[in-house]
Amino acid sequence: MNGYLMRQGTVYRRRADGAKFLLIHHNPMGMESLILTEKAGTFDVFTPSLLGVDTLIAMRRSGEFDDTGDLPANDVAALIGKLIVSGSVTQEVAKLLQSVRDELEKR
Q: What is the C-alpha to C-alpha distance for residues 64 and 93, in angstroms, rounded to an integer?
């Protein structure tokens, strides 16, 4: 898997109502990701949700969502920074997010 880059900051749009959310793969070994929902044109760092890989796979297969692409790495890194300082995640999750942020900042 040398040279493999995991997509980060993918934005999905629910077809039924146009709601958008951002996906951050903070814990691939634990098969968990975080979702930030869009509220008033910005992604909410104060109420992230955990998403397991099975739910993510089912969501992608459902046909109910459009993958609208990834935000630029620097924008995702900035959101992760805001998420970490928001206090809305545990210290363990914050450490994992910091690792993701460090990788994004290298790109």
A: 28
Distance (Å, whole) CA 75 – CA 94: 17
> Using one digit for the tens of pLDDT, what is the confidence trace for 26-43?
988 888 999 999 999 999
- Residue 26: closest CA among 52, 2, 44: 52
Is residue 75 very low, low, confident or very high in pLDDT (cuts 50, 70, 90)? very high
**Residue 30, phi then psi, degrees to nearest 5:** -90, 0
pTM of full prediction above 0.85: yes
Structure tokens at 39: 């509220």
| SS3 (DSSP) at 8 | coil
